[in-house]
Amino acid sequence: MIHSKQDVIHLISEDEWMMDILRSAQSLYLPDWWVCAGFVRSKIWDMLHEFNERTPLPDIDVIYFDPSNVDEEIEKRYENKLKQIQPTIPWSVKNQARMHTVNNDRPYSSSTEAIAKFPETATALGVKLDEDGKIVLTAPYGIEDVINFHIRPTPYFSETKERMQYYHQRVSKKNWKSVWHKVKL
Questions:
Q1: What is the crossing angle of helices 16-26 and 38-48, to 10°?
Q2: pTM to 2 decimal places
Q3: Rounded distance, CA 93 to CA 82, Å?
Q4: 41-55: per-residue pLDDT in tens?
């Protein structure tokens, strides 16, 4: 069972595939990097649903924060480096110092601020390895929603009608309940 952030960290630490993903991302030495969103959420939901096999992920989201170079081409180079390390992984690398322009927002101050602006609280999660190889978890809204299968908008997405419209479209498109039957909207 999962009751705490430490339980999530332990769950990930026992998954060699996830640890390999984290070590690969760490090898890029990106500033303020995290592997986030579905990578963490899906692992938790798979375990709580007692699945024997991992639910396939459309991508592995690696984010970082580097305001000194916001050229999107750099992100593609990082993706290619990761593909050289693990060619079967659908890597997606995004510099959060650039993403405010994509989201029509004010500049973000860090990757963790960007994670806090993800659409759902249950997806606003990130993990990385510290210098000692230990897992660090960020969960701006805690882990209660993800471990209780609650899909809710983050406060940021609740602020405007346009964001809420996007949130509803996204949740409908993701159709998580078709994979994880315990999910509650």
A1: 170
A2: 0.96
A3: 9
A4: 999 999 999 999 999
